[in-house]
Amino acid sequence: MRIFYYLYFLCYVTFILPATCTLVDADRCTKRYGRCKRDCLESEKQIDICSSARKICCIERLYEEDDMF
Predict the structure, then answer these.
(1) Which residues contact 8 (CB under 8 A, 6 or more apart)?
(2) Order of all β-strands in the sheet with 35-37
(3) Which residues form the Beta-defensin domain (predicted)?
(4) Each residue of 13-26: pLDDT tens digit?
């Protein structure tokens, strides 16, 4: 059973995580005009995951990017 969990973890790290977002450091997030935070505000969107503990890179939404719902 441990082998199954290990293979699942490897598949997740190899295929799913890189397809959704990437790990960035705080400097790279700042260069993309974002900030590493624990939660994004409603006026911001998540663009990447910061390499620091449990933080995400948030950037302000443009008015054209607002959800249509």
Answers:
(1) none
(2) 23-24, 44-50, 56-60, 35-37
(3) 28-58
(4) 776 655 556 677 77
